[in-house]
Amino acid sequence: MQEATVKVQGMSCRSCVRAIEGALDSIGAEGRVNFEQGTVDVQHDEAKVKLADIKQAIQNKGYNVVA
After folding, report:
1. Class of 2-66 per CATH?
2. Which DSSP string corresponds to 3-37?
3. Cα 1 from Cα 46, distance rounded (Å)
4. How many CB atoms neighbour CB 65 within 10 A?
5. Could you give the CA distance from residue 10 to residue 65 in angstroms, rounded to a whole number?
6. Model-level pTM?
7. Which portions of this protein are annotated as coiled-coil regions (predicted)?
8. Tens of pLDDT along 12-61?
């Protein structure tokens, strides 16, 4: 399993946490959101889910991923 921390702007509540964690779960990744720090800690199998896929899933939910 690979681990990565992604910086995300626009998260502010538990609903944001559920949306992002649900989006990651749907693509086969596990995410843990810390909206106070503006980060998402992600665990994923690099052979199945690329970091670009993770970022896209978060952006598809309306949040801004900071490079």
Report:
1. alpha beta
2. EEEEEEES--SHHHHHHHHHHHHHTT-EEEEETTT
3. 7
4. 16
5. 9
6. 0.93
7. none
8. 889 999 999 999 999 999 999 998 899 999 999 999 999 999 999 999 99
What is the C-alpha separation between 13 and 43, in angstroms, rounded? 22
Return d(Cα 11, Cα 2) in angstroms, integer: 24
Q: What are the domain boundaries of the chain?
A: 2-66
Sign of CA dihedral 10, 20, 17, 19: positive
Contact 65, 6 (CB under 8 A): yes
